[in-house]
Specification:
Layout: H1 2-39, E1 49-53, H2 59-68, H3 76-86, E2 95-99, H4 105-114, E3 120-123, H5 130-138, H6 152-158, E4 174-177, H7 183-203, H8 214-227, H9 234-246, H10 254-261, H11 271-275, H12 298-305, E5 314-317, E6 323-326, H13 329-339
Antiparallel strand pairs: 1-2, 3-4, 5-6
Helix pairs in contact: 3-4, 7-12, 8-9, 8-12, 9-12
Length: 345
């Protein structure tokens, strides 16, 4: 009787063993598939792809977006298991994330948990005018345009500088931004950077400069910026203008005349332009112009506050980006004849 009972149970034991083996095999297969999923590159075609994770998005919604973009075909359960394994479930930050070739699901979730959003860069170029800066901002990739419809006064009010003239007030530099930032965010940072830089450099300026305020230094630096792009010439050119200011000579610098001409400037400056009075014509008006004429970079600011010593009062372009300097009008006239009129003696 006992022998038959034991024999009756044997088929059940075999069936249970088969079920257990099948379950173990399924788990092993599932784990192998999960491991392969977490370590295999996503289906990213080329560069420049990204995923925009909205504020409050769930992992399920993120995975649905990835599947819609064709980046993954994996079951959402794999993504949930990976998030649990990495301990990032519920800790994924909103923002735009790069989808780079070779990136794995593990890489992407780690980036989202760390908030490593896509950063773009906007460069303010030394010597740009404020108008050129505003035009460039409208072309910046994925930068919200909150200030595009405002006039200059409105922009300055929005960035907390109401009543100030904008020209020269923004430091040429490269600024990082993320999707969702606006043109006004860039301008606020560039304005603050210029104010901080100018205050710091003004405190270390040479003594006895004919400049009454940091703003006058900013004006002079903008002229130096527009006169030359050569680092070795900036202090010398600043020195010429400083000596002219000290001796009450007219600055007689073409870039200020051009700035005062505004949109009427067509690429060439004529003798009649030098005699047509505007607030910026330093051939007809003494001293510095009323505002900067461009955005000076830090090197131009340093040159204006630490001009080269010497006796030079004139300079003229050689036509190759460099200048020849002179201390007397007679010498200067010879240089003009040689380099401008091509009548070298």
């Amino acid at each position: 009787m006992r022998r038959r009972t034991m024999q009756g149970r044997a088929p059940w034991r075999g069936l249970i063993l088969l079920v257990l083996l099948a379950a173990a095999g399924a788990l092993a297969y599932g784990w192998l598939g999960f491991s392969r999923f977490s370590q295999s590159p996503l289906s990213v075609q080329g560069t420049g792809q990204s995923i925009d994770v909205g504020r409050g998005s769930s992992l399920k919604e993120i995975v649905a977006q990835l599947r819609a973009q064709g980046v993954t075909s994996a079951h959402p359960l794999y993504w949930r298991l990976l998030a649990e394994q990495l301990r990032v479930a519920g800790r994924l930050h909103a923002g735009e994330y790069a989808l780079a070739p070779g990136m794995t699901p593990r890489d992407l979730l780690s980036n989202m948990a760390a908030g490593k959003v896509v950063q773009r860069h906007f460069t303010i170029v030394d010597g740009w005018t404020f108008r050129e800066l505003r035009d460039a901002l409208t072309k910046a990739d994925k930068l919200r345009q909150d200030g595009a419809a405002l006039d200059d006064a409105g922009v300055m009010e929005k960035i907390g500088a109401a009543g100030e003239m904008p020209e020269g007030r923004f430091l040429p530099e490269t600024y990082a931004y993320v999707k969702g930032d606006s043109d006004l965010d860039i301008l606020r940072r560039a304005y603050a950077a210029m104010a901080k830089t100018l205050d710091s450099l003004w405190a270390q300026r040479d003594k006895d400069l004919p400049l009454a305020s940091p703003y006058e230094a900013l004006i002079l630096a903008s002229i130096v910026e527009k006169e030359t792009g050569r680092a070795d010439e900036r202090p010398r050119i600043a020195g010429v203008f400083v000596r002219r200011l000290r001796t009450h000579m007219l600055l007689q610098t073409d870039p200020t005349v051009i700035y005062g001409m505004g949109e009427s400037y067509a690429g060439n400056i004529h003798r009649s332009d030098l005699t047509t009075d505007t607030p910026y014509n330093t051939y007809t008006r003494p001293g510095l112009p009323p505002t900067p004429i461009a955005l000076p970079g830090r090197p131009a600011l340093e040159a204006a506050l630490h001009p080269a010593e010497g006796s030079e009062l004139y300079f003229v372009s050689r036509g190759d980006g460099s200048h020849v300097f002179s201390s007397t009008l007679e010498e200067h006239n010879r240089h003009v004849a040689c380099f401008q009129l091509k009548r070298c003696q």
